[in-house]
Amino acid sequence: MPEKVTLVVFSGEMDKALAAFNIAIGAASMGMEVSMFFTFWGLNIIKRNEGSIKSRGIMRKMLNLMNRGGSRRLPLSKFHMLGLGKWMMGKLMRDAKFPSLDDLVAMAREAGVKFIACTTSMGIMGISKEAFIPEVDSFAGVATYLAEAKEGKVNLFI
Amino acid sequence: MKADATLDCIGLYCPMPIFQTAKKLKELEPGQVLEVLADDEGIKVDASAWCRATGNELLDIEEEAGAYRVYIKKTK
Questions:
Q1: pLDDT tens, A49-94?
Q2: Nearest CB to B19: which of A25, A32, A97?
Q3: Long-range contacts (CB closer than 8 Å, 24 or more residues apart) made by A60-65
């Protein structure tokens, strides 16, 4: 049986997402079974980039307006500088032939990494299933995470 | 060293070389040797860690002019 790796992706910044996907792809390439649990701000990473995201109630509408998410909208956790820092980091990554976050998402899928979205965060923040990219395998809660993590040797919180 | 296939990872950073290696090795038969060309220094240690974890055999790493030739034998 392959060894399991679980990643809780709580953060919604581009640099942290890169780190998470880097580990996920590496682990999958080493023959490990990888699950990524996206929760809270981490859900922004797997929101689709196109179209608007609908939600009900004034507070949720405001939250989802300010917290639109999508792989191409994520800020840097440091030196974001209203997007200038992120643009520069993107340029450095392209110059170094490093894949974009979208490329990493595709590579992770190709390597068999599972994507799970946290339904509690979705419920609190008023985010529906339609807000996410089609690659999301399932919508689940903490029991699903723990059942996987219990069998995992590498369990990370990012 | 003789290889059955070559994978060019020059200019690529982690995790690309191991991702590509894992993919490429699937195309080979057990007993065949894959040559990986890389210039990210991490490959020196990563290649042996990858082989240890996946059960493949690291035959040799040759270093020349800042680049590495890694020879991996597919075992299963």
A1: 998 888 889 999 999 999 999 999 999 999 999 999 999 999 999 9
A2: A25
A3: A60/A125, A60/A126, A61/A126, A63/A125, A63/A126, A64/A125, A64/A126, A64/A127
Nearest CA in chain B to A18: B15
pLDDT, average across residues A32-49: 97
Domain ranges of chain B: 5-34+41-66
Domains in chain A: ranges and CATH: 4-157 (3.40.1260.10)
Q: What does the alpha-carbon distance between residue B22 and residue A10 come to, in Å, rounded to a whole number?
A: 28
Helix (H) or strand (E) holding B5: strand B5-9
Catalytic status, residue B14: yes
- Contact criterion met (CB below 8 Å) for A5 and A24: yes
Q: Please state, in angstroms and rounded to a whole number, the distance separating the CA atoms of residues B18 and A27.
A: 10
* Closest to A16 (Cα-Cα) out of A48, A47, A38, A31: A38
B14, B16, B22, B45: which one is catalytic? B14
- Residues 6-35 of chain B with CB under 8 A from chain A are 11-16, 18-19, 21-23
The ipTM assigned to this model is 0.81
Query: In a mutagenesis test of the B interface, which of A29, A101, A110, A113 is the best target, namely the one with the most B β-carbons within 10 Å?
Result: A29
Laid out side by side, the sheet with A152-157 consists of A138-140, A114-118, A33-38, A4-9, A152-157
Distance CA A154, CA B12 (A): 25
DSSP for residue A132 = B
